């Protein structure tokens, strides 16, 4: 768990269109991560 005000560690994640997004590319912008189960899965 990060302390309030601590910079988040850099990471990369797959976007919905198959591209890769890296947190450091978005530095200075507001970022929202939205996780949800893929359609038609049991999760």
From TrEMBL:
Gene3D superfamilies for this protein: Glutaredoxin (3.40.30.10)
Top-level taxon in the UniProt lineage: Bacteria
InterPro entries: AhpC/TSA, Thioredoxin-like_sf
Molecular function (Gene Ontology), one example: oxidoreductase activity
Alkyl hydroperoxide reductase subunit C/ Thiol specific antioxidant domain sequence ranges: 4-42
Listed name of the protein: Alkyl hydroperoxide reductase subunit C/ Thiol specific antioxidant domain-containing protein
């Amino acid at each position: 768990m990060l302390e309030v005000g601590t910079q988040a560690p850099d990471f990369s994640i797959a976007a919905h269109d198959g591209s890769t997004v890296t947190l450091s590319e978005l530095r200075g912008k507001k970022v929202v991560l939205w996780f949800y189960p893929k359609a038609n899965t049991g999760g």
